[in-house]
Amino acid sequence: MRFSTLLLSAALVLFTSILFAADWEIDDAKAPATMAYYELSPSIVVNVKGRAKYIRCDVQLMTRDEAKLPAISLHAPALRHELILLLSDQQGTDIRTSKGKEKLRKIALKSLKGVMKAQVGDETIDDLFFTTYLVQ
Q1: In this entry, which stretches build a coiled coil (predicted)?
Q2: What pLDDT is recorded for position 52?
Q3: What value does the mean pLDDT take over residues 12-37?
């Protein structure tokens, strides 16, 4: 009886350790990806419509998966091109206000997500930030 209890306890310990090891492997696979930023440089400077003459801005692109940075870097020229076309089509007076800047940010984000979707089949970019923004 004592031997069977000891054998049962050993089997229980062994089985439990196997379950915990399997559980750790599952948790590692579900580990969240690391957020990262990509700076589109140099600054973007374009003429705008209306009374204002130009906009100069620095743009940071955020992804929630650091592994996607190489794709963003590879397609940076296409992303810059899209931003240049978008910015040059703006009325200077509209993008000077806080609401105008935020509206432009959202439009630019949607536009750049579209570029990445067309290039790699995934939107890749999760957010866009203007780190410098000047309209004159």
Answers
A1: none
A2: 87
A3: 60
pLDDT in tens, 82-119: 999 999 999 999 999 999 999 999 999 999 999 999 99
Domain region containing 101: 36-135
Spell out the alpha helix ranges (H) of the chain. 2-29, 69-74, 76-88, 98-120
Q: Is residue 12 one of the residues assigned to a domain?
A: no
Distance, in Å, from the CA atom of 53 to the CA atom of 122, rounded to the nearest integer, reads: 35
Cβ neighbours, 10 Å, residue 67: 10
Look up residue 11 and give its two tokens: 């089997």
Task: Tell me how many domains the chain contains.
Answer: 1
